[in-house]
Specification:
alpha+beta, Chloramphenicol Acetyltransferase, eight-stranded mixed beta sheet, 10 helices, 30% helix, globular
Length: 420
């Protein structure tokens, strides 16, 4: 096993590049009270001591965590907060707000969207409770909810089975990737890391998925492929990367920790005239092959070996260089677009207060998906300001009879991260 805290190893990559910032926007149906939010946020955050830590470097040049006795920062205004600094009391978590929007910012090394929802729901429950509302806490971790071993669990790599997967897919490296979009954005002094908030009624989309042999992931993959064909008629092949949460595969189904790997599906232009149903069926079949637990166990062993190699480096600079040069997350198959779906989140008694949930992350041509009982909330991420890709995506939705509403282009203003 690696020597140090499971959550610490992504920090070495973060030291050199800010690709692990997350900001989750929760839109409420009423104006926020900042003073009440500050008190509620401090109470709720104490429930999660594994988040309530600061980073330091030990004598071996390794990142370690130390408990923090300061409250989580609650900052007025939608801005890019700098995590790990005095602005956030040294924490890698922070909250900001404006009008009826709360922005939960954090470093990805602790958790992803799924794990963070526990903290987010706890904060919202405490906020509305402190306002005097009677909110059912079923499914919500409040200050008196015991901390369990299961929620803090990490995989025991030595005990994972070493069975071979029943077949694997081979991928080519010749798909379109949106490099020129990034280049143009970098040269644009007014460039932005933007997103369009899209809302799709949940019940009809689930019926559409059922009628077209699909799941939310496979239907989105198929519609985004159709988008690419419209936007890029000269290209011949496209690859979608689909996030797969493998916690249960490695014996940690209830952990807060982020354990995600990428699945891939490749499409070629010969499929462009296929109906969504057929594309979805192909997508699901290729996803199933990659969802074998044996593949998750194999990937988990790779992560374990990678972390041991980081430990073997003699100082912080060497650890950082090794982590960046050998990253398992940023050296995967280049994809044309990505899909990340938080999955089923039970909002319970908070449901009447929420008007939207959008996950904001680093990436382009990436759709981050959240949901409540009524809607799918899609964050359509882009670095373009001309509406390319979005226009074509909405055309596909309209052709398929999928209702939607879409907001204006907004800047993500992702948090930055400063480490020792």
């Amino acid at each position: 096993m690696p020597k140090y805290d499971f959550d610490s190893y992504t920090l070495y990559e973060i030291k050199k590049r800010n690709v692990y910032s997350v900001k989750i926007r929760v839109v409420l149906k009423e104006q926020l009270n900042g003073a009440v939010l500050s008190g509620a946020a401090a109470k709720a955050f104490r429930r999660f001591p594994y988040y309530n830590r600061t980073v330091s470097v030990n004598d071996e040049g390794a990142y370690i965590f130390e408990p923090c006795d300061k409250p989580i920062a609650v900052i007025e205004g939608d801005k890019s907060v700098c995590l790990g600094t005095d602005e956030t009391n040294g924490l890698l978590f922070a909250i900001s707000y404006v009008q009826n929007n709360i922005f939960f910012s954090f470093a990805h090394n602790f958790c992803g969207g799924c794990g963070s929802m526990r903290w987010i729901k706890a904060t919202l429950w405490q906020y509305f409770t402190d306002l005097g509302r009677d909110v059912d806490k079923t499914g919500i971790m409040t200050s008196d909810t015991p901390i369990t071993e299961e929620e803090q669990s990490e995989p025991n790599v030595a005990s994972l089975p070493k069975d071979e997967a029943l077949g694997k897919l081979n991928f080519t490296m010749d798909s379109f990737i949106p490099q020129m979009d990034y280049m143009k954005r970098m040269k644009d002094p007014e460039g932005m890391d933007g997103y369009y908030p899209i809302r799709i009624p949940k019940a009809p989309l689930m019926k559409y998925a059922h009628d077209n042999d699909g799941s939310p992931n496979s239907i989105l993959a198929a519609t985004l492929f159709k988008m690419c064909v419209k936007a890029l008629p000269e290209e011949k092949k496209f690859t979608v990367g689909i996030a797969n949460n493998y916690r249960a595969d490695v014996g940690c189904p209830d952990t807060y920790r982020d354990m995600v790997r990428q699945m891939y599906v490749q499409y070629d232009v010969g499929m462009s005239d296929w109906p969504i149903e057929k594309i979805s069926t192909v997508t699901r079949s290729r996803m199933y092959i990659q969802m074998q637990p044996e593949i998750s166990c194999e990937y988990c062993r790779k992560v374990d070996d990678y972390r041991k190699q980081i430990d073997a480096q003699p100082d912080l600079e060497s650890k950082v260089d090794y982590a960046v040069d050998n990253s398992l997350t940023t050296h995967g198959l280049p994809s044309s677009y990505h899909i990340s779906y938080v999955g089923k989140v039970e909002w319970g008694g908070l449901e009447p207060f929420i008007d939207g949930i959008y996950s904001l992350t680093a990436g382009h041509l990436l759709v981050e998906v959240n949901a409540n009982a009524e809607y799918f909330f899609i964050n359509f991420q882009t670095v373009r300001k001309d509406g390319k890709y979005l226009k074509e995506f909405l055309q596909v939705l309209e052709e398929e009879g999928i209702a939607y509403t879409v907001g204006e282009l907004e800047d993500r203003k992702l948090p930055s991260i400063t480490l020792p």
